[in-house]
Write a structure and sequence with these properties.
With 164 residues, this protein is mainly alpha-helical. The protein has one domain. Helix content is 93%, strand content 0%. The chain contains two helices and no strands. The longest helix is centred in the middle third of the chain and has 136 residues, at 8-143. It is rod-shaped.
Length: 164
């Protein structure tokens, strides 16, 4: 058991060595260690505060970005709506102009057709009248070639006139 049980001198010197190390550490090492720990604690606290500030700034920027995006979407929708309305108005105007032009062309064509029809009818009447006169002339020449036939025609025409 002598090996496991330390001697009284060993315990004394170990205690003195321990106290010297403890006092040396307390006087020289602990203040710098505590200072370093305090500085580290302050830097961590500052870093957390900075992180909180950055997080708040990010939230603010994100809300500003969302507001800007919302405004941009509204402007885009307004521009698209105006463009659509303008397109529909232009189409309606073009249809109106095309319809008016078509109506004008149809009216002009009808007028031209009526004019051409009247001219053709007048030409046909003139042609029929000329043909009738030519035919009547040829018939009268054949029928009234001698004087007796002419006198008989005149007498019958006079008789018809007196009767009416």
């Amino acid at each position: 058991m002598g090996l496991v049980t330390p001697g009284l001198g060993l315990i004394f010197w170990m205690t003195i060595a321990f106290l010297v190390v403890w006092i040396g550490l307390g006087k020289f090492a602990w203040p710098s260690i505590l200072e370093t720990i305090k500085e580290r604690e302050e830097s961590i606290k500052n870093a957390l505060a900075s992180a909180d500030d950055a997080r708040a700034e990010m939230a603010k920027l994100q809300s500003e970005n969302e507001a800007i995006l919302k405004q941009a979407r509204e402007e885009r929708d307004t521009i698209l709506k105006e463009g659509k309305e303008m397109k529909e108005k232009m189409i309606a105007d073009a249809k109106g102009l095309a319809q008016a032009e078509a109506d004008k062309i149809v009216a002009s064509a009808r007028e031209n057709i009526q004019t051409e029809k009247l001219a053709a009818m007048a030409e046909i009447k003139n042609h029929v009248a000329t043909l009738s006169v030519d035919i009547a002339e040829k018939i009268l020449k054949n029928e009234l070639g001698d004087a007796a036939k002419q006198k008989q025609l005149v007498d019958s025409l006079l008789a018809d006139i007196k009767l009416n």
